[in-house]
Amino acid sequence: MVKVWVLNGPNLNLLGNREPKIYGSGTLEELNEEIVNRGRQLGLAVQCYQSNHEGWLVDKIHAAAGEADCLIINPAAYSHYSIAIRDAVAAIAVPVIEVHLSNIAAREEFRHRSLITPVAAGQISGFGKRSYILALEAAKLMLIGS
Q1: Location of site Transition state stabilizer (predicted)?
Q2: What was the pLDDT predicted at 28?
Q3: What is the pLDDT of residue 15?
Q4: Sequence-ordered alpha helix ranges (H) in the chain
Q5: Burial degree of 73 (CB within 10 A; 0-12, 13-18, 19+)
Q6: Which residues, other chains included, contact 121 with Cβ-Cβ below 8 Å and sequence gap of 6+?
Q7: pTM (predicted TM-score)
Q8: Strand partners, 87
Q9: How many domains does the chain have?
């Protein structure tokens, strides 16, 4: 079975409480359950992870190179300034899909630029939790086909 890892960055553990008008009212646990279930329907074995620590995320990206067939990542605030995460994504030979719950291009100007996007296979943002579901569907198309 095709293995997909989903990595979530800082503050996503606060989903459900953090700015629900922007990020929705569902929790990270609920989101992870939906992602895993949809992945199973698509024939994907999905594992979800979250950390507020940049170095841990870098280590997990490195580990994906030997364990996962695709990586879906929401680097959160690290999208806009983490060269370490950008370089880790660029260093692995695993397709990476960047996701964001909100439309980062429609938010504060400092959020408009992602360092990850140029080294990712693609970016999906602005569809709330559906961003992850769309990323799973994109992963399936890239790895298995229609």
Answers
A1: 18
A2: 93
A3: 87
A4: 20-23, 28-41, 54-67, 83-91, 130-143
A5: buried
A6: 95, 96, 97, 138, 142
A7: 0.93
A8: none
A9: 1
Q: Is the dihedral of CA 26, 28, 30, 33 positive or negative?
A: positive
Higher pLDDT residue, 4 or 11? 4
Binding residues: 74, 80, 87, 101-102, 111
pLDDT in tens, 99-136: 998 877 767 676 667 899 999 999 999 999 999 999 99
* Stated length of the chain: 146
Annotated binding site for substrate: 74, 80, 87, 101-102, 111
Q: What DSSP assignment string belongs to 16-56?
A: TTS-HHHH-S--HHHHHHHHHHHHHHTTEEEEEEE-S-HHH
Q: Please identify which residue in the block is written with the tokens 């959020």.
A: 111
The pair of three-digit structure tokens given for residue 140, joined into one six-digit string: 């399936």
| pLDDT tens digits for range 49-106 | 999 999 999 999 999 999 999 999 999 989 998 999 999 999 999 999 999 988 777 6
Q: Which residue has the tokens 């009212």?
A: 25
Q: Which two tokens stand for residue 134?
A: 């769309």
Q: Which residues are catalytic?
A: 23, 100
Write down the pLDDT at residue 18: 78
| Domain ranges, residue 94 | 2-143
